[in-house]
Amino acid sequence: MPAPKTVDLIIIHAAEMLPCRGSPEGVRGPDLNRLETIPDGALAVDAGRIVAVGNTATITGRYRGRQVIDAAGRLVSPGLVDPHTHLMGHAVPITGWA
């Protein structure tokens, strides 16, 4: 077995990991009903990119992190980008709100 690769960050022991895997163009239609979860999830990040997602045993067997975050009891959703905004807040002066 090769020696574990050192990466910038690993997150371990997430109660649930939601990897948000899908097409680079985005997930659409019926695929939105498919939710993948990884119990005791972990991920490795190097140079600002997610390089691996899996369970904690697999990730810690392959990677060593310069920084390690224990996410026990927490939800981790790598790759989820929430791009929503509140444009009305920019269109109405704060003094105009009642």
Mean pLDDT: 84
Tally of contiguous helical segments? 2
N-to-C series of helices and strands: EEEHEEH
Biggest sheet, open or closed, and with what strands and sense?
A: 5 strands, mixed
Number of strands: 5
Q: Radius of gyration, Cα only, in angstroms?
A: 18 Å
- The low-confidence runs, each spanning 5 or more residues with pLDDT under 50, are none
Percentage of residues in strands: 35-45%
Distance between the termini: 65 Å
Helix coverage percent: 10-25%
What is the structural class? Answer: mainly beta
Using the alpha-carbon principal axes, give the shape: globular
Task: Walk me through what this model shows.
Strands 1, 2, 3, 4 and 5 form a 5-stranded mixed β-sheet that branches. This protein has helices spanning 56-62, 88-91; strands spanning 5-17, 38-46, 49-55, 63-70, 75-76. Strand 2 (38-46) and strand 3 form a beta hairpin. The protein is built from 2 helices and 5 strands, in the order βββαββα. 16% of the residues are buried. With 98 residues, the chain is mainly β. The protein starts with a strand and ends in a 7-residue tail after the last helix.
Any descriptors?
98 residues, mainly beta, five-stranded mixed sheet, 40% strand
Topology:
Elements: E1 5-17, E2 38-46, E3 49-55, H1 56-62, E4 63-70, E5 75-76, H2 88-91
Parallel strand pairs: 1-4, 1-5
Antiparallel strand pairs: 1-2, 2-3
Give a short overview:
With 98 residues, this protein is mainly β.
